[in-house]
Amino acid sequence: MMMSAEFGTPYVLDDRDSWVLNVYTGEPYPGSDVQQEWLDHLLDGCLEMWFVNPPIADWHLSRYPSHRDKIVVVENGWDISFIDPASLGHRVPAAPVFGFLGTINEGLPLQQIIDGWRAARRSGLPSGSQLRLYGGLGHVRGSRSQELLLQSAVRDNVVHMGRWPKARIDEAYREIDVLIFAKEGGRMVTSGKVYEYVATGKPIAGVVEAEHDARRVLAQYPRVHLGTGSSAETWRDVLLAGARDAADTTPGVVERAIEAGGAFRRDRILGPALDRVIARVT
Q: Which SUPFAM superfamilies match (predicted)?
């Protein structure tokens, strides 16, 4: 901002999730009136303001209609430097490995996932199938209960892989046959992880609310099996559907899925956005 004020340097505001809006409630943060006024001032001077999904952008459009031409959606996408979809070992597994990647905090419906996993095993999953969770436990109240749940499920082939470094994320995706997606929130929440998931070309089994914005991304991907209402029965059904999908893996199926996920590659999202910004100043 100082560079712009002093030298007239053009700028873009990359607001991502928004610093005045609580994306979980859809309401402004309490006491954010000053920030909202300041945001109006910043919008006056910027070339564009970027948001991660249409619902967040629409919220700002409704409050700052005079800046309609500046409020733009630029999604997170996935990074080709961390994931090479063609090298992820797409196979027809005899006993599929299911995997969740992300922080295992109190927002994750771990009890329902494990109950659904047990029900799926009783309903025909191969006996050697595994459920792996890659990620650390959260640091807030409830994390201890998640840890105890994981410990109690070891006998059911549930494996906590612990914290997993970003530099080894491709290794995790290579080991997994069916990805598990779960994310709290609603229409203003997308999740960065959903973009990585659709990059892989692998089946996704998940449960999210009907209005969750991640569904918008997942709807463009051919290997997705979603439920609503986080019951054990719902998880059982999507896990079994994911296993059937993995068993039907063919080169053509993988190719179509990778092609669909490629639309969310970060360079393919940022490239046009940056070209547009450059065109505004040249």
A: UDP-Glycosyltransferase/glycogen phosphorylase (SSF53756)
CA distances from 46 to 61, 187, 271 (A): 15, 27, 19
pLDDT digits (tens, 9 = 90+) for 145-181: 888 999 999 999 999 999 999 999 999 999 999 999 9
**Which residue, chain included where needed, has tokens 């360079």?**
267
**45: Cβ–Cβ under 8 A, 6 or more apart, which residues?**
4, 11
Q: What is the largest CA-CA distance in the chain?
A: 68
Q: By C-alpha distance, which of 111, 131, 213, 219 is closest to 179?
A: 131
pTM (2 decimals)?
0.92
Measure the CA–CA gap between 260 and 220, rounded to whole angstroms.
7
Bridge partners (DSSP) of residue 100 are 133
CB 110 within 8 A of CB 149: yes
